[in-house]
Design brief:
three-stranded antiparallel sheet, 94 residues, elongated, alpha+beta
Length: 94
């Protein structure tokens, strides 16, 4: 029987960085990974490149999740979250 898992990605503004929280749910339990992404770096790289960088960091910590879910699915999850966060962040700016 294969070990299935799911990935949820959340973002929280934390001063000059966005804290990305990647939550992996599997039969063995839940694992949290937090990656701080400075807004300045994100802006200079662009959203897609920043998401790919975060995905590479996450892959080093969880190669088994990458194998099960696939690189494209994980990168899309992170990219979508960053795009949503960017819209929400701009909406809340004075």
């Amino acid at each position: 029987m294969s070990n299935s898992c799911t990935l949820r990605v959340y973002a929280e503004a934390d001063g000059p960085v966005v804290a990305l929280i990647l939550v992996t749910h599997s039969r063995e339990g839940t694992d949290l990974s937090e990656i701080d992404l400075p807004y300045v770096l994100w802006q200079s790289m662009g959203t897609r490149a920043a998401a790919n960088m975060v995905a590479r960091f996450y892959r080093r910590q969880h190669p088994d999740v990458f194998q099960q879910l696939g690189t494209v699915a994980i990168q899309r999850s992170i990219t979508s979250l960053l795009q949503l966060h960017q819209v929400e962040f701009r909406r809340n700016q004075p």
